Amino acid sequence: ARPSRVVGALGAAVPGARVVVLPGDRDVPRMTDVARAGAAAWLPKESPTSDLVAAIRAVRLGHACYPPADLGAVLRALSETPGRAVDPLGGLSGQERRVLAGMVDGLTGPELATALHLSLGTVRTHTRKVFTKLGVHSRLEAVKVARAAGLLPTSKRA
Predict the structure, then answer these.
(1) Does residue 123 carry a pLDDT above 70?
(2) What are the strands, taking DSSP E only, across the chain?
(3) What's the whole-model pTM score?
(4) Which of 120, 130, 141, 121 is nearest to 99 (CA)?
(5) DSSP β-ladder status, 20-21 and 41-42
(6) How far apart are CA 15 and CA 23, in angstroms?
(7) CB atoms within 10 A of CB 4
(8) 57-110 tens-digit pLDDT
(9) 3-class secondary structure, 43
(10) What is the spatial distance between Cα 33 and Cα 27, in angstroms, rounded to a whole number?
């Protein structure tokens, strides 16, 4: 199977999964395809173990890792793809989207818990997952990303 299909299937099966591809080559078109499919990293399998550990740690923190020598070509190819807008909210589960929508509306954690019939701990877990998936570190940053993606407040409070 093509690596991009495998990456896409993994993303569909495990939403929010961060995929690291370990190929036997540095083929830029394949690299571009897997990046488009959602792979977080492309690391040639002959790379030293220390590079693999560093890539996994970076991906776990929400970063992407592609070979610096090929990154420019991959980014150019991705930017030249017509009609392919990336939805920054696409990786969120339904419940994570509801939590984010509540943040956009200006709800506090306890208010979100009440509105969504969840425990405060569950709201905190979903909030952390939203932050990770959006690559942000605060509610303000998450709301900024959400609003830029078209998620607008539904209450007068926000």
Answers:
(1) yes
(2) 20-21, 41-42
(3) 0.49
(4) 130
(5) parallel
(6) 23
(7) 19
(8) 988 888 889 888 888 888 888 877 655 456 788 888 899 999 999 999 999 999
(9) coil
(10) 10
